[in-house]
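Lecture notes, unit on protein representations.

Consider one protein chain, 265 amino acids long.
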Amino acid sequence: MNPASDPAEPETERRPKYAVPAVEKALDVLELLSAQAVPMTQAQLCRALGREPSELFRLLSALEARGYLRREESGGYVLTLKLFELSRTHSPHEQLLRAATAPMRELVDSIRESCHLSVLHRDQLLVLAQVDAPTSIRLSVEAGSLHSAVDTLSGQVLLANSPDDERDELLSRRAEFLRKSADERATFIAMLGRMRQDGWGYAENARFVGGRDLSVPVGNPLGRTRAVLTIASLKGTHTVHGDLFELLPGLRKCAEDIGRIAGIG
């Protein structure tokens, strides 16, 4: 596990070296109200955050004046839709694409294999970006194309790293899953569990003979924006890497870089 993401690490050690207390207090308030999803009074916020009333009074007034909070008649504070409106100003897919461009190009130049970045979109796998290997024979997946989230490795890794209720709801709508027998469904769910535990997925001959895919998740499984990064390779005498697993550390680093730059790591 990356030490920077270790939940056991003290909070003070994970904070930036040059902290801005006022900004951190404001973010603490916004994140707490988002997590609780119920009105909270100033006193409740102080207790939950371990702050003195004098620390939060002016802060809450400023956030309310700027439209981020609304105080109800009960005295409790709730989030307004302003953060949602700000988030909708730019497409998360566009931001993810910008974050992924340089790391993906660097990865492909290093490993000389093609890779693509995908997300779930309306119950299907949407390929956001594709970077071709700098070789005469390569496997390419068209950016913008839609594929089954059940029958592709990329889709399976995304499902494996989604909350169980979201995963089950999607699967309940997909004919590819529903046509499976009860035993096959159980086997499929167990496979997703192993992928989540391993932190990667691998498949050979899944879509056609000679195809090899190695996938890792991008982003926090509990976050709103999740993606998957996949190396797609053709097996044969021209193959650059006989064993794709030797590329797993580089693939993981690329996924971590994308998540960090996009702010979804």
